[in-house]
Amino acid sequence: MNHIWRSPAAPFAIENLQGIILDWAGTTIDYGSLAPVQVFQAVFEQLGIQVSEAEARGPMGQAKIDHIRAMLSIDRIQGLWQKRFGRPSSQEDVEDMYSSFLPLQKSVLSKHSELIPGVSQAIRELSQRGLRIGSTTGYTRELMDVVEPLANAQGYTPQVTVCSDEVAAGRPAPWQIYRAAEKLGIYPMSKLAVVDDSIAGIQSGLHAGCWTIAVAQTGNALGLGQSECESLDPADLQIRLHRIAESFLAQGAHVVVCSVADLPQL
Asked: Which is catalytic among the residues 64, 66, 196, 197?
């Protein structure tokens, strides 16, 4: 299914692009962005708190420690925390949970680092057209040291990867994108497009002054693995994707695609 939604308020100046900066989970690997959700739920479950998939997905795209902090700020989850522990959660609690998150996440990454169909071909074609390829991620460098070799073996090797712990603050701050642009040697920022499956990632691109391309089908917004997605009734899938696209456009995305595989069509 190849659908492209465009913002009428901001025509996409594709002819001026020199590079693209892509997210990882849900954008180029891990169809449905499943790995982080499973681990966030497991970290809370270890403390006797059940969180829903929707609650785990809400802050997606942020640095993982910020993601945990954002989940604890959800009224329902904070209420469960206080009922269980008799006090509000603290920064120390966030750091303890993050310490639990990292080894759990690392242990499941090898099962969730498969390239999304069409990614390697699309990136190869864009590279042949002269675009430079960068990437950013909410994962830390320690986690990406697991992911990158697996992606490389499947034919995907961006020229630059900037991790959430390599800058002062993760998304929606623009620092990772600025760092990637510097390493790619591209400016002004309007010569770059940011590709992401999360609202935080799109906001980061907008804050950096880049064009933004949201991914509707393969990532966090739809939240379904490939087999689950393919089992949906096509009409139902199209309705869901249209709603997701409208949401991304309302947040300022310039273009919405189903998948990175659709990028060469732009």
From this structure: 64
